[in-house]
Design brief:
alpha+beta; BirA Bifunctional Protein, domain 2; 2 domains; seven-stranded mixed sheet; 11 helices; binds phenylalanine
Length: 335
């Protein structure tokens, strides 16, 4: 009996979906709900159920009848509302398209960078976007009066809390909890109090890299970053290292590649120089090792950092950084 109830319930549920006209609805009613319909027949066989079972089965049957009646009544209402039975469906209506998602251009660039460094043995680490002065500046050997600490550049939340201005504080956080050898990249968001326009935004992404061990040299830095550049930008691209200054590395360098917009002849993008700066790097300053309690006599290391938006702008020929953050599908669906 229970199985019969289930079966009729299943049939009614399936058949009501096929009903699209008043005639069809009437056939449904006759099959299930009429005086000799399937539900009534089940009530008839209630006689054969053992007395002890009768209350339970009777209740189930009443529920079945209400359920099937409900299906019928709802469909009747739908048919009246849509006027079905009077009008055939409009076959000329355009179909409904489904939009396929795509990966954000920044995610694509980041995934590619991660893949290359992971293949070279780097692990991935991250740290907080709200930092304290010590991790963002002090431990990285920024002198107390360094201009980067100025309100002009840094979003301070209170006297000590700030939005990190670069991913370098994650270097400190990794070294605070691990001993060498270290080989990590640290992707993440960074914030700078800059005017928002086509070229700059108050938030962007960086990937930091850190390698610390005994006997790490500037040649290791060069070998690793050149391997990365060749893999990422192509094997025949020209690059150059130029000395620069960061408080947390010594010596420090910026890496430039030939401008691929103009092939090095000079254009608006490379400001007529023929070169694009893509990366800052250097040997970890012993003062940084001292902040995290590493023996600077024993260990050496290199670090690097690059901006993701800049790379994505150049790679996809995008001329406005704000497009990355507006979530306009007309832009995003192109990737
Ligand atoms: N943190 C530097 C910046 O934001 C980049 C950098 C990282 C340079 C690591 C050297 C070493 O510009």
């Amino acid at each position: 009996m229970d199985a019969d109830i289930q079966e009729i319930r299943g049939r009614a549920t399936a058949e009501i979906d096929q009903v699209s006209s008043p005639e069809g609805l009437d056939r449904f009613r006759v099959t299930f709900l009429a005086r000799k319909g399937l539900v009534a027949q089940l009530f008839e066989s209630l006689k054969t159920v053992p007395p002890a079972e009768k209350p339970r089965v009777g209740k189930a049957l009443n529920e079945l009848r209400e359920y099937v009646q409900g299906l019928h009544d709802r469909r009747a209402a739908d048919l009246t509302a849509s006027g079905a039975g009077r009008h055939a469906p409009d076959l000329t209506l355009p179909g409904r398209t489904r939009f396929a998602g795509s990966r954000h251009p920044l995610t694509r660039v980041l995934d590619e960078i991660k893949e290359i460094f992971v293949s070279m043995g780097f692990a991935i680490a991250d740290g907080p976007e709200i930092e304290d002065d010590y991790h963002n500046f002090g431990a990285l050997n920024f002198p107390p009066d360094h201009p980067a600490r100025d309100m002009q550049d840094t979003f301070f939340l209170d006297a000590n809390a700030l939005l990190r201005t670069h991913t370098s504080p994650v270097q400190i956080r990794v070294m605070e909890v691990m001993q060498p050898p270290i080989r990590h990249i640290m992707p993440g968001k960074v914030y700078r109090n800059e005017a928002i326009n086509a070229r700059s935004y108050c938030m962007f992404h960086q990937v930091e890299g850190l390698c610390v061990d005994r006997g790490v040299t500037f040649s290791d830095l060069k070998g690793t970053l050149i391997a990365f550049i060749k893999e990422f930008y192509g094997p025949s691209l020209k690059y150059r290292f130029r000395p620069t200054f960061f408080p947390f590395t010594e010596p420090s360098a910026d890496i430039y590649i030939t401008c691929f917009m103009c092939g090095g002849r000079g254009c608006r993008i490379c400001k007529q120089s023929g070169w694009l700066e893509i990366l800052g790097c250097g040997m970890v300053d012993p003062a940084v090792f001292r902040s995290v309690g590493y023996d600077a006599e024993r260990y050496t290391g290199y670090a690097f950092g690059m901006g993701i938006e800049r790379i994505a702008l150049l790679r996809y020929g995008i001329d406005d950084i704000r497009l990355f953050f507006q979530n306009d599908v007309r832009f995003l669906s192109q990737f």
